């Protein structure tokens, strides 16, 4: 957790935050030690509190090594607390599906595949034929640039 003062100065942080900050902002002379994403979610919290914007104070960051982090801001005794933690599989899946403009049914299909479902199980769960599952898969492959039903969940989950 990173704690920011009302004027967005760093007041404190938990030991676990140091490791995430080094990944988000590699040490370099003259570079701020706090990533812009932390300030962005803090600003979003202030905007929500002012009634200017109703979006939640949350951001997800995808790093080059495949790691996804979620940043969230909340009010804490006058200060702003920003948490930084690894994104859950559900959060990564949601971002992947929205980024590729998948439909609700295609998103459901990718989620079921990510849970290890085969065509028969997915078809039964979705109340469609196995042929419809294959049609959805072709569409998903085309939109996401994947070519393999094993590669799809791995990419969707950031593995």
Description:
- By secondary structure, the protein is of the alpha+beta class.
- The protein folds into two domains: 2-86, 2-Layer Sandwich (Beta-Lactamase); 89-156, Arc Repressor Mutant, subunit A (Orthogonal Bundle).
- Helices cover 47% and strands 18% of the residues.
- It contains seven helices and five strands; from the N terminus they run ββααβββααααα.
- It has helices at 15-24, 36-49, 89-99, 104-114, 119-126, 130-144, 151-156; strands at residues 2-4, 10-13, 58-62, 68-76, 79-86.
- The protein has a five-stranded antiparallel sheet, sandwiched between helices.
- α3 runs antiparallel to α4 and α4 (104-114) packs across α6.
- The mean pLDDT is 87.
């Amino acid at each position: 957790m990173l704690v920011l003062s009302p004027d967005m100065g760093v007041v404190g942080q938990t030991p676990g935050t140091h490791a995430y900050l080094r990944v988000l902002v590699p040490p370099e002379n003259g570079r701020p030690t706090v990533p812009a994403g932390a300030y962005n979610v803090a600003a979003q919290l202030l905007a929500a509190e002012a009634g200017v914007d109703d979006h939640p104070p949350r951001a997800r960051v995808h790093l080059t090594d495949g790691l996804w982090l979620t940043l969230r801001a909340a009010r804490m005794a006058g200060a702003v607390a920003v948490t930084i933690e690894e994104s859950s599989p559900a959060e990564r899946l949601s971002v992947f599906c929205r980024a590729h403009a998948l439909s609700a049914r295609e998103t459901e299909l990718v989620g079921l595949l990510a849970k290890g479902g085969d065509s028969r199980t997915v078809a039964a769960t979705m109340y469609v034929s196995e042929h419809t599952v294959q049609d959805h898969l072709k569409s998903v492959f085309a939109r996401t640039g994947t070519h393999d039903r094993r590669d799809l969940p791995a990419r969707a989950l950031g593995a």
